[in-house]
Amino acid sequence: MVKRHSREEMLSVALDAALEGGLSRLTFGRLAARLKISDRTVVYYFPTKDDLVTSVLSVVGDRLQTVLAAAFSTPMRDHRALVATAWPVVAQPEYDPLFGLYFEAIGQATAGLEPYRSVASHLVEGWIEWLGGFVVGDAHHRRTEAAAAVAMLDGLLLMRLLGGSDLADTASTSLLDHRRIR
User: Fold this and answer.
1) Total structural domains in the chain?
2) pTM for this predicted structure
3) 157 and 77 in one domain?
C-alpha cells in the first residue's frame, strides 16, 4: 500500500530539505525522494517550483512570527523598542537556518529572479505591517517605525549570519544605546 501525504506533510518535508540544502537545491525530485513518492505527486500539490518555494517561504515567515508574537506583549513607542524586544529572540542560534533561507530569498530577489522578487517584497511588506501592529501612534508613525525595525533587524541578522554572533551583539548594543544618540 502506498502512503499518501498531505500538502502540509509535503511542505514540512520541503522546509526540512530547504533548511538542509537551501532553496536553490529544493527540487521536485529531491522532495519526492525524501517522501518516497513520485515527483508527479509533488507536482499535483505544487504545480511549479515557484509554488513550492513560495509555500516554503510562507512557512518560514509564519514560524518566525509565531516566535516573535510571544515577545511582543505590550505596545511599543518606536523601532528601538521593537528591536530591543525582538533581538534577544531572533538572535537565538536555532533560528539561524530560517533566517538563512530568508536571506537566500532576498539575495535572489536583488538579482531580479522570480518568484523570489515577488515573495521577498511580500515578506518584507508583511513584516512591516505585522510589526506596525505593535507600535502606538497613527498609521504613518506605526509604518515608519516598523520599517525602521525591519531594516535594523535585517542588518543585524545578516551580520550575525556572516560575521558571527559576537559582532552582531556588539552592533545591536551600539545601535540600541540611547545615550550615544545626539
Assistant:
1) 2
2) 0.88
3) yes
